[in-house]
Amino acid sequence: MSGSGLYYKAYNKFPIWLQNLSISLYGYKLYRQRNGKVYHEYFEELRNKDYSDLQSEKEYQNAELIKLVNYTVNNSSFYKEFYKGINISKIKTVNDLKLLPILEKETLRQNIEQAYTIKPENGIKSFTGGTTGKSLMVVYTRNDFQKRMAYLDAFKARLGVQNGMRRATFSGRQFIPPNQESKVFWRHNYILRQKLYSTFHLTGVNLAYYIEDLNIFKPEIINGFVSAIYDIAKYIKINNISLIFKPIGIFTTSETLLPFHREMIEDVFECPVYDQYASAEGAPFITECKNRKLHYNLDTGIIEIVNDVEMLVTSFNSYGTPLIRYRIGDSIIFKNGKCTCGCCHPLVKEIQGRQVDYLISREKGKVSLSHLADVIKGLPNCIRNMQFIQNNLGEIDIKIVVDKSRYRVEYGELIIDEMVYRFGKKMKFNLIMVDEIPREKSGKYSLIKNNIK
Prior knowledge:
The chain is an alpha/beta fold. It has helices at residues 6-13, 16-34, 37-47, 54-75, 77-82, 105-110, 112-115, 142-157, 207-217, 226-238, 259-269, 369-373, 409-423; strands spanning 124-127, 137-140, 167-171, 186-189, 194-198, 221-225, 249-253, 273-277, 286-288, 294-296, 301-306, 310-315, 326-335, 347-352, 358-361, 365-368, 383-392, 395-402, 428-433, 448-450. Helix 9 packs across helix 10 (226-238).
């Protein structure tokens, strides 16, 4: 978990300048992981790629699918057994995927070690958030990780982003000590010319400090949670604050970007907002073009639709932990037509499943779904399901369904520590172990149940 461990405890005692240095050194480590030979080659290929030929894109998809399936069966003991009795040689096109079974999240969680095609220590670990109540540790090959980073950077480069631009990032990482008295709610990654702004401290009292520092930093790019950037924009609008910078673009992620979010953010910052969809597991990318239209990127994987809107994903950049016909828990609605941007990739009307829901803390205000999804991020694959229920301002019930063969008592203590960081010490938390968490009448699973808003 991001808030546990000996190093984190030591980091909390560092002065701010040393925390900045620590984050910069960690940033350099990440830079080395992502910016290797494969990254640079793939980035150059993608930055100027012609996406106008739909037939070529579909042929590429089919070729990548055949390669992925053959590799997976030959290198993953889980998939070899999962596909037992299936003639893999019949998988020639996207339409043939129906010959394979659907991979459920719980099935993957139970068999995750057998699903890996490489040893975790030989790859790059990524922990998923728990928006569906489960958290997984997936492992990327180094080549896959660099390809995914190159794809994201190429998407931004086509919209005017250049290396070395000043970046402000609003994400759910924990880098502000819980007992800090200073009103400095940000840290500097000098390696990437990036400022990380905490999204755990965006209360009415603190918002003015954030905006004052943004005016000092003058970011050319802003990335991060929709709800955080929207709250900043709304505060600027209501208080008639002048900004002395104008970003070239704002890139939102993790939460659903609704029309009122876009309108407010674009009005205040006087620049376009570009949305994107991916996942820590490695789902195919969905990105916005210069016309601010969402495209399902055919060259990153396959999205199938079941039950009218539910997504099954197959990823071309998850060879370390293959995802084939994986029920990711989100829903999608496509729309007809072709975008005038020149890209032939299918248009997406709406992605569902990343709603900006929240619980409430007297001390810290709204705590969004994205922050709660990360409560179990980093735990071993021991949580089958989870749900947060708030019936009053002073108390939250945390229901968990655990894998008893993997769960240990200290994991519950870590969960409570994470909740205290998000809500403060005045909130009471009831950790309740249950056998099952029922779905809503709609059939959907809800991580958050706010019964007081």
